[in-house]
Amino acid sequence: MNNQVKICIIGLIVSISLGFKADETPLEKLLKQLAKITANYPQEKVHLHLDKPYYAIGEDMWIKGYVVTAEKNEPSLLSAVLYVDLIDQYNTIKKTAKLEVVKGLAYGNITLIDSLSPGNYHIRAYTNYMRNYDARFFFQKDIIIGSLIEKMPASSKKEEKIELDLQFFPEGGNMLAGVRGKVGIKAVTNDGLGANLSGYIENHNGEKVAVFTTEHAGMGSFAFRPEKNEKYTAIVTLADGQARAFKLPDVKENGYALGLTATSEAINVKIATTPALIGNKEVLVIAQANGVVCASFPFTPIKEVTITPIKLENFPTGIVQFTAFDAEGKPLSERLIFVNHNDALDINVNTNSVALTKGKTEMKLATLNSNKKPVEASFSVSITDLKQIAQNEDDETTILSNLLLTSDLKGFVEQPNYYFSKVDENKIRQLDNLLLTQGWRRFVWEDIMAEKEPEISFRPEITLEVSGKITGANDIDLPKANVTLISTTPGFFLKLDTVSDARGNFVFDRLEVPDSVNFMLKSVYGKGQNKDIKLTLNQRPKVTPYKTIRKTVDLAPYLEITKKSFQELGKFKGEGIALNTVTITKQREMKSPLNVPNSANASGSVDYLITRKMLEVENNVMMVFHRAPGIRVAGDGIVVDTRKNKVMRLIVDGTEIDQSAQPYFLKSINPKDLEGIEILTSSYNTSVLGGGGTIYVTTKRGAGAISSATNTAKITNAGFSVRKEFYVPNYDDPKTNNQLQDLRSTVYWNPKITTDEKGLASFSFFNAGTPGKYQVTIEGLDTFGNLGRKVYTYEVK
Q1: β strands within 214-291, DSSP E
Q2: What digits encode the pLDDT tens for the residues 335-353?
Q3: Closest Cα partner for 47 from 425, 378, 347, 429?
Q4: Strand 712-715 to strand 608-610: parallel, antiparallel, or no bridges (unpaired)?
Q5: Mean pLDDT of the chain
Q6: Secondary structure (DSSP) of 90-108
Q7: What is the pLDDT of residues 242-255, one digit of tens each?
Q8: What single-letter DSSP state applies at residue 710?
């Protein structure tokens, strides 16, 4: 069989995808199906650039989101909505920002309200479309949030004895008898971080056959030749002098092992074969990056080791997966390698002025691509005071480390940007050790061979949407159910109707609404017989329990300066960040004044009460209003206060409904869905509210809750999150208070810097009031998926 490498260019993919032929080879079938999946089911990735690595309660977390396609890291045109969740250490979502995405770019902020507790938090970001795939490919980042009045919670961990987990990963997945190969090793202690150690491998007779040493983050590799029917054990000595033994994987008598080594010009593909399989069957090799096939070739092994070089220029920067298959398309061996063409955007920063405290500084950017050509690109810029924000570049989750590496790897990667900062031969080797030991699965080869296509349950959101499902008794899908969406926000009228599809799904899209708008939804099926109808809104994804793994950071100096900064700005007391001490001398027995559970009528005042029992015997809710004193029902169904002859205020579960704008609303309510109705008409009970009387309607699901057992639902804050503008004081303005110390930790944040066709952009800002070093962090990309990051420091005098 010809051993020449067949580079899979677009023409080959297109010709293969025209249809199966009678003589179609397994290789052609694999290529065709992979091309189909990649073309028809694109995947998205997300990267977030935050202004700094940790925060204090009361601050704002400033965010720039980059949503790209996984194939080439180009800005995605699929999704227009990005969700950013702030999750505490108990896996509870504390805050969510809903950001508008325009041509793959989004920006906004999360205000760290004073109801938060200090501690470890987790940021995740995703689009609705990304939910069709493994949630472990969402953007993930750990942060710490400190408090100006509370100490960080003490670690619940007691002094534990260090436990060591040692894992071995034969290159290509198999340790073959009689074949010399590489074995990756990963040593992790019970704190989740890597451990640097050394040890040796012995056979069942106690004879030493290999030695090993771990390097960065507890990873390393060694080579040796295992023997048939032999068992191997690794011996290491811990810091306390105790020796520990760990078993190596079993030796396979027959099989294949795929190995990779890279030079400056090529990737050498080594396929090792046990003697019994030499000359036996054809083996297929496919190299792909994010579903795009870069190279492929079939061959029949004629010796124990076969090496095939492939030019490096055939591969993009990033992770490339090599897989060997048998003649039927079954995966035999797999190996990842990282290709780095050093083609990141070249970002140059220039400042001609001397930086002074509270002085204006102007910066200019000049951006070139790998061909030294100017490029138009979008960037976000953060400038921080290094005295307050101590940053370790190796620990950062950067646009390079995320989109090129960790977004394609499952599991925790310690110090991800270590492999992209000041790269040398040692780091190249250590990155290869990482790929020997880390899991990767964006798709499963068995599914490709079986022509199994991804199940798409979540469509890309090209606009704001409200969606859900209508079911009946025994959760049977109800098609053609009528669904109505009504605004319950005073001053914002909107009413939309739709019909559920064959599976009971419904969607309201193209919603252009402010953040504060609230909606009520109601479903009716058939002739209005709503018994057993259930309207369920599509919920955001559940939080997968996540173990925070990070080194200890001392926030005390940062929090102390931030506290002084808040005091200077009058923010420390004025916004409730600090609380006065309250001494509790006696607990008072509290009795709820509510007449109806969960009622929004917190005062308990009422002139006429309609109870749950009274409502359960009614089929039409309007009947109870005809019997209530002091009110009347007009012909259009609007309830009027007869004493003042005014339309009554209608408040449903705490949300006011304008009866005049929505006269049909009360009529649409099923009385059996209600917990109670309170009517206030007397001058005493309505004096505070003013105007006519008030009707409080409380549903069985309670104020603000969403029910999964009724034909109605409620949505709050339906629009995009409100975006603040980052405040930069203008010390050139005489109205600006120059007497403030100005202890800002983030001096400047701008998520909207764009270079022109000459690759140029400029911006200006005022430094804070403290001298010292400041760090400029710039991240961004161009429309072709070329990524860039620049870290620049300057001194303020």
Answers
A1: 219-224, 233-237, 243-247, 256-262, 266-273, 283-289
A2: 999 999 999 999 999 987 7
A3: 378
A4: unpaired
A5: 86
A6: TS-EEEEEEEE-BTTEEEE
A7: 889 999 999 999 99
A8: S
Instruction: Give the N- to C-terminal CA distance of the chain in Å, as an integer.
Output: 71
| pLDDT value at residue 12 | 38
Phi-psi category of 745—alpha, beta or left, where left has phi over 0 and alpha has psi -120 to 50?
alpha
Beta-bridge partners for 779: 380, 789
Number of other residues whose CB lies within 10 A of the CB of residue 569: 16
Residue range 602-636, pLDDT digits in tens: 777 888 999 999 998 888 888 999 888 889 988 77
Residue 119 contacts by C-beta under 8 Å, 6 or more apart in sequence? Answer: 88, 89, 144, 145, 152, 153
Q: Would you state the pLDDT for residue 691?
A: 60
d(CA 412, CA 140): 10
pLDDT tens column, 278-313? 887 889 999 999 989 999 988 888 888 999 999 999
What are the contacts of 618-621 at 24+ separation with CB within 8 A? 618/671, 618/672, 619/671, 620/671, 621/666, 621/667, 621/669, 621/670, 621/671, 621/674
pLDDT winner (highest mean) among 152-166, 343-357, 545-559: 343-357
State how far the Cα of 521 lies from the Cα of 527, in Å rounded to an integer.
18
Residue 418 phi, psi (nearest 5): -55, -35
| DSSP structure class, residue 250 | P
For residue 447, the Cα-to-chain-centroid distance in whole angstroms is: 26
> What is the distance of C-alpha 739 from the center of its chain?
42
C-alpha to C-alpha distance for 80 and 38, rounded to whole angstroms: 21
Residue 567 has what pLDDT? 84
Query: ∠196-197-201 over CA atoms, to 5°?
Result: 140
Give CB contacts under 8 A, 24+ apart, made by 720-727: 720/81, 720/98, 720/99, 720/100, 720/464, 720/515, 721/96, 721/97, 721/98, 721/99, 721/108, 721/515, 722/515, 723/107, 723/108, 723/109, 724/60, 724/109, 724/111, 726/62, 726/750
Q: What does the alpha-carbon distance between residue 245 and residue 161 come to, in Å, rounded to a whole number?
A: 17
Q: Which of 271, 322, 329, 327 is nearest to 301 (CA)?
A: 271
Q: How far is CA 592 from CA 168, 598, 604, in A?
A: 62, 10, 8
Kind and range of the H or E run holding 754: strand 746-754
Per-residue model confidence (pLDDT) at position 736: 80
Q: How far apart are CA 78 and CA 75, in angstroms?
A: 9
More confident residue, 685 or 407: 407
Taking the C-alpha atoms of residue 247 and residue 708, their distance in angstroms, rounded to an integer, is 51
Neighbours of 137 (CB within 10 A): 21
Q: Per residue in 107-132, pLDDT tens?
A: 999 999 888 889 999 999 999 999 99
Alpha-carbon distance values, 546 to 47, 74, 402 (Å): 19, 29, 18
Tokens of 654: 């705490």
